[in-house]
Amino acid sequence: MSRPSTFSPFPRLPIEIRRLIWASALPRGRVQLFAKSVPWEDWRLYPPLIARVCHESREVARDLAVVRGFPTAQDKHNETWFIGSRDVLELASGYPYPLSNPEPFFAAAEALAINAGDFGGDIKHVVRDLIGGTRFHAVKVVYLVAEQISTAYWPRFRPDLTEQDKGKGTILDLCDSGDLKSIEDYKAWARSQEMSPVFPRREEVEIPLRAALDELIVEEINAFRHVTAPEPQDTTTMQGASQSHQVLNRDDPWVQQQWKRLPDFRPALLVLGWP
Question: Any idea where the 2EXR domain is (predicted)?
Answer without folding.
Answer: 7-89
